[in-house]
Amino acid sequence: MKKRGLRLNTVLLLSIIGTVAAVLLCAVLLFLKTYQQSLIRSAQTSGRRSIAQVSSTVESYLKEMEGAMALAEESLRETGEDREEFFRVFLEIRPEVVAASTYNEAGELVNCYGRGTPMEPGEGENLSFRRESLTDYRDGYVSAPHVVTFFKGWYPWAVTMISRLDGPGEERWAALDIRCGDISSYINGVGIGQRGYCFLMDAEGNIVYHPQQQLLYSELKRENIALISALPDGSHVEGNVIYTVQSLENGRWKVVGVSFVQELIDESVRELTLILLVSAGVILLATLLVSAFLSRALSRPLRGLEEAMEQFEQDADNFSYKPGGGLMELRALSESFGHMVLKIQQLVARVRSEEINLRKTELRALQAQINPHFLYNTLDSISWMCERGKNAEAVRMVNALARLFRISISRGHELIPIRSELQHAESYLQIQSYRYKNQFRYVFDVEEGCLDYLCNKITLQPIIENAIYHGINGLVDQGEIRVGVRFRGEDILFTVEDNGTGMDEEQIRAVMSKERSDRAGIGVKNVNDRLKIYFGPRYGISIESAPDEGTRVHILMPKVREEAEYEKR
């Protein structure tokens, strides 16, 4: 059974599609990677612009508040009703201001002007002023967000601007509490992506304002303050987060923008990936169609050539080939195969003719080589019969010898009727029975319809000779040789059976492999070879034998009506 691999068109198709698919995959991945990096850079640029805008707005607001602080300081230096009137009007025009206060050197509240009802001294903890913070900020500072605790029933969220009050006497400080709500209006409106945001923090890492302040206090959200505090101004990618940091001019606050890489990338990349996949699919489909056309154009002539080779292999004699078309190289290959077929057919015909002639010559030479011992012994027997006055027996023996020679020659024919072959075998048995003084008897069992079919001449005689010499000759009692001819389907089966000494397996192999010798004109092996050469490998001789149980030889031939039927083989 032939081993079959992949066809050329399949290999071409897979190679082209695989190559294009690999190139497209690499291109798509490279493009997506580049596109993601581009998106990140674009997000960083957009974040810097947004944070710069927030920073500018917050700085403007702080400068405005510093101006308000300067006015408040000026008024806090004064005394009397003028100061009371000023802060009444000041709080009306500055709704973002919660309170204006003064503190002595010890950090105790001296004066407080605000929108609510003041508490009695010592009723609550003052969160708007920390004397210890002045160690680092001698001229003042902006506090972290806190709750203002000056008023009863009102606790606004604010940051406090602290500055030194110049003047004679003891050290005093002015404080301006500013609601965070006004700062939040500048920050909450800034969005970086769908989930991005910005917040304010001071140099100590305290969050001044955060749009998700309540989540931070409830610890439902955390900011990596340690990381952010260590980042310089600019845009930084940390994992899946983009931090954009910008310090304000006062150096105390930072505006921090937070955006998320995955958010920026997911939607854009998802859309782009879909577009790329559709484009790649279209390209692959086009490539498939083109490669299918090319592979078909290349493989169809080759497939035709392959089929022609298989047909030539099965029936070289009757094979006829017409070169096909296709590409120049394939057409040249097809024409070369056509020339090769003609050359092989011519060579085979020549070899077959020479083989037939050689076979006929060899067969005629073998047939001519009658065993001289057999001839001498037969003539001696005839002479002895004449001397003893057994003229009738001598005549029968001479007639048998004449028939033997006549059939052996057969006018040059290689195939003779089975009837003639049986006559030849009977003549041989008659002669041998005279020579062996009736040491054996013989019987013919022939199906009548077989007689007119043809067979190889001198087929039975070597088998019978072998039965006499190797089987019957060693018997004490009388032997028996049975010759049978029967139909077997579309074939004819010859049988030569004796009741002699028999043979073992080794002896059978020796007989089947032994060439002709001086004693035998045509050996069993030669008969078997002739049958196989003439009729084919399924025909020939098989032997069944066992020591002391006799031997049965089967000769299988096809039904042949005319010699010309096999002369041309």
Describe the protein in words.
The protein has 14 helices and 18 strands. A hairpin with a 2-residue loop joins strand 15 and strand 16. About 1% of the residues have low confidence. The protein is 50% helix and 19% strand. With 569 residues, the protein is α+β, with helices and mostly antiparallel strands. Strands 1, 2, 3, 4, 5 and 6 form a 6-stranded antiparallel beta sheet that branches.
Distance between the termini: 26 Å
Text of the CATH class of the largest domain: Alpha Beta
Tally the structural domains.
Answer: 3
Average pLDDT, to the nearest integer? Answer: 77
DSSP strand content: 15-25%
Number of strands: 18
Helix share, percent? 40-55%
Describe what is shown at a glance.
The chain is α+β, with helices and mostly antiparallel strands and 569 residues long. It is built from 14 helices and 18 strands. Strands 1, 2, 3, 4, 5 and 6 form a 6-stranded antiparallel beta sheet that branches. It has a 5-stranded antiparallel beta sheet with strand order 8-7-11-10-9.
